[in-house]
Amino acid sequence: MTNESRVILAVEDEPRNAALLDAILSRAGYRLTVADGVGAARAWLEDGSPDLILLDRHLPDGDGLDLIPEIRGSGRLGGVPILLVSASVLPQDVEAAMAAGCDGFLPKPVRVKPLVDEVRRLLADEVDEVDAKLAD
Amino acid sequence: MTIDVLLTIAIDVAFFAVLGFTLLDYLRHRERVRLVIVLVFLSVSVLLAAAPVRAVVPALGQILAFLSLPALLAQPVLVLWLASFVRPLPRLAMPAALGAFLVLTGGIVVLILLVPRTTGGASQSAAQSPALALFSLALIAYFLVLEGAAAVAFGVAAKARAGASRSRLITAAIATALFGAALAVLLGAGLALTPGSDASTTINLVARAIALVSALGYLAAFVPPRAVRRLSQQGIVYDFVRDLNAMPTPASIQEVWQLLERAALHASDAARVEAVLEGETPAVGAGARRVSFPFNSSRWPEGRLELDLAANLLFLDDDVELVGLLVDRAVRSAEREAFLSEREDLIGELQAASAAKSDFLAAMSHELRTPLNAIIGFSELLTEGDGEAEDAATVRSYAEHIHGSGLHLLELVNDVLDLARVEAGRIDLKPIRFDVDALVRQTVASVQPLADNKQLRIVLDLSDVAIEADPSRIRQIVLNLLSNAVKFTGAGGEIRVALAADGNDRITLSVADTGHGIPAADLERIFEAFQQADAADMKTRHEGTGLGLALTRQLVEAHGGTIGVTSEVGVGSTFTVRLPTRRPIDLSAEVPSLPEGRAGVLVIEDDPAAQELLRLHLEGAGYGVVVTASGEQALAWLTKMRPDAVILDILLPDLDGWEVLQRLKGDPTTRSIPVMVVSVVDDRQLGLALGAIDYLVKPVSRELLLEAIGRLTFTTKVRTRTVTVLIVDADPGVAAAYRRALEPEGFTVIHAHDAATGRRLAVEDKPDLILLDAMLPDVDGFELTAELRRDPATSTIPIWLTAPGGLAQEAKARLNGDVQGVLVKGDDALDSLRGWLETGKRSSRPGPVVATQPA
Questions:
Q1: A87 in contact with B, Cβ within 8 Å
Q2: pTM of this prediction?
Q3: Which residues contact residue A126 at a Cβ distance below 8 angstroms, ignoring those fewer than 6 apart?
Q4: Is the distance from CB of B752 to CB of B761 less than 8 angstroms?
Q5: Does B537 lie at the interface with A, CB-CB under 8 angstroms?
Q6: Regarding beta strands B494-501 and B506-513, do their DSSP bridges make them parallel or antiparallel, or are they unpaired?
Q7: What is the pLDDT of residues B489-548, one digit of tens each?
Q8: Which of chain B's residues have a Cβ under 8 Å away from the Cβ of A111?
Q9: Distance in angstroms (rounded) separating the CA atoms of residues B137 and B141
Q10: In this predicted complex, what is the ipTM?
Q11: Between B599 and which of B212, B505, B644, B798 could a Cys-Cys bridge form, CB atoms 3.0 to 4.6 Å apart?
Q12: Nearest Cα to A120, choosing from A18, A12, A30, A5?
């Protein structure tokens, strides 16, 4: 599987921030789809199957964390890794994120290398899982 | 000596001691009541003294023996009199008692004259004479009735009172009753028993003893010794303190006052007791006396405990002392409670402030990260990397992102700074008159693109209004309201902007949207920094600093206006701003008056510290000072006020000093008031050109200031008041010449013949000007000048030297700036002097100026 074929959904409403994610990840060879709110993300997820979801919290129509139970709950998307990229960096915020079921957390302002590494890590895990499944 | 005799002597001595005590007490206090008490004891003492005195001085003893019965008869009347001090008696009581006394005394005289004495000199036994027996019965009845009446009077009075008063009056009642009993017993024994018999002697002793006890009772009731009073006082104070301590903490201060009032009532039994914290109270009724116990508390400066007492109250001294103690304790307790409760409030506020600060910082951290994300992210992409350069278009795009975010960050930081400054009251508003509707139109145009994106309609309903305000800040306000409206209104909605004058010198601006509204609970909160509706849920948190409305409100209020919001969830919100059209200087307010009898200075200065300093220096030198921070206000005042000088700062919040100066000098009514600029702005040229007489750059020393002001006010004085000139010249002709020249013009001239007198008069009379002969007989004119300069009492008085032929160069050098100038003697000298006086012009460093040509 090449990077190119991976589908990453970014739920981010600030165009500039979305552009940044896209710039960083496309340099690493990934492609990004952007949903600019909770509603938009839901709509996309009805048909789409992301390999990874980059999630922001503060969205115009809700808190990004609210999407997580929906994602986990749906059998199809249940195992998709979710990486929170957010400006809410206080300890209690991080705790809330992890408790909600995020697989990773990156504080804003986001740094290029950490983001790429995290994305790779989470996608690799997925690969391992898929491989493991295939192996069964 | 038998026991009997010893006891008798002991009792007698004790009795006299009591008498002595009451006498001393009366002599110390000179109150009528105490005199009556002395008489009560005296009346009995006569009887007791008779026997011992007879042993020493038989004749006197005999007299005393004669007087003893009348004296004793007087005792009940005196006691009844004493009772009347405590409780008014029926009108006939005293006259009846007095009548009975006189009748009985008369009876005694009759008896003594008619009834023959048996040999031996002793009075007969009553059994031996029916008249005597009858008389004796009458006596007993007299005593019993009167003493009884008095005892009842005390008793009834006791019932009506409380606390110490009550116990003392009960003691008095008992003592009176006891005494009556003692006398009855004594008289009865005298009647029934044979004098000299054992029974008689015993009864005598017993009666004496009872009398002594009764005397002590009276003492306790009316003249308690200090120690006894102390004891009872301590008891009351103890109880009071115990009750105070028993109150729960923090007790309400009201309860403390109530406790105090109750205790004071008990201690004094006043008709009215009230703890008054401030203000007047209705006057005390007739026949009553008001005693006031000031709290002496800085927290309640007018606080006092008021006691309205019936006049003639017996126990006043002690009550006063005791109540004073109670008040003192109560006030301290109340102060402590007040302090504790204030401290709690303060702690609460501090905690809230601290929590608010933490919240603010957390929110700031969050807010700043968003633009930083783009700045750091994109710059990292540009600077890191595997050496693979991006194409120019990409680079440019990244750079634009960085720039845009940088601007956003700047906006955030500026907003925070603005907010901090506005809250600290240090925002610099630069009000000018401008058209609000034009500004609103401009601002609407700037948000139009955003509105179009969301298909929002913006409807304008603007009247033509102008206000005096800071346009950039008003723009900030309008922009904030508009962008909020755009942000919070869903696609297809409408925003309506209305602007109108409302007739009371105010304008109303409203921005109404059809957005999703604000819940009632949040209507107040949204104006606080970083608070957005439902921020806690993060559900509807929006892009933007969250400072917008907080800053907007501060700016509105800084202009003297108000902002409010009404909203209905699901329907929309309307924000309404009301602003005054004029800077809120109350021009109709009273113009303060300058202090009488002193030179008056108006200080126009906005920095409070500088205000204080100027006031200190000027008032210390005897000037009357009025201060304002506003140029507008000063101009308004100066239409009515006529100070002798104006001190003007340039940096003022409303008009700047140049403007004020120009307006002052441009107006014929204020043109002649001398103005001195005192400012950090160093533009002397401009100041003098605009008409200031002097220009000092801050910081200014006291000496410089006073010297400069002295010059200014001198000028005014010359025009309006008498100038006193001291002439120090040995030649009387010269003095006369000056007098002739100056006095008709209204100057007052005083003359000193020599330096010593000159110095003295300079200090005593404080002339406005000294003319000094350079060639004085005793002291060198230069030296005197130097001395006058050195002495602080005279150092600011301008000096002119007079010299017949002018002064040589080196002489002038010696003067070294100490004198205003040198007058060459001659007629023209007077002209130059006059001229100088009229204009009051001085160079800033006075140097010798040789005047005109010699005569």
A1: yes
A2: 0.46
A3: A51, A52, A79, A80, A81
A4: yes
A5: yes
A6: antiparallel
A7: 888 889 999 999 887 788 999 999 998 888 888 788 788 765 554 444 333 344 445 677
A8: 376-377, 380
A9: 6
A10: 0.87
A11: B644
A12: A30
